[in-house]
Design goal:
Elements: E1 11-14, E2 18-26, E3 29-38, E4 41-43, H1 48-75, E5 86-94, E6 99-101, E7 106-108, E8 111-120, H2 127-159, E9 168-176, E10 180-182
Antiparallel strand pairs: 1-2, 2-3, 3-8, 4-7, 5-9, 6-7, 9-10
Amino acid sequence: MESGFQDFGPITVHGNLGRAAFERNSPSSASFTISYDTPEQDVSAGSSEEAVSWACSREIGHMRRALTDLGVALASRLSAEGAAPRVERSWENAEKRAWSRSATGLRVSASTWACQEVLEGSGRYSDRHLVLNLVTQAIQQRQENIRGAYAKILLEIDSATPLLTEPNRRHSSHLYESSPINFGR
């Protein structure tokens, strides 16, 4: 059996905030999924900028807790055997939050985020380190995406014209040792 390969099916963790799963399909193929829910937010603040800033910060904190907790729980159940991979992800993301504004505050509707990665590469990498690396990068990327979504809310508040669009996400990952080993979606 190749280093880092576990052949006993998907490993899934459920938490209060979401779900994560990892499955080693073969020595050179694996899949990783993670999702979390963000609760509705009701913000009472003085200005639109303050309300949006507070809601954005709160959602980023929630996301970081959810993805960190899920990633650590999942990684603790995976093999640490093998080399620590270096993963470089590229992604595209377009998302929108449903919101409403009243004289007393801002309400941002609940949302769900999900990511699925299909990984192709060598089985000599540690599954545990691979998951931790993917989660770390997902947190950084989600933080950017959330800030962008709330910047759009602020623009919409200023223009008083909410624009509702459907999320459109595409993810790809790349794993590098000394030469690139592509992961793809």
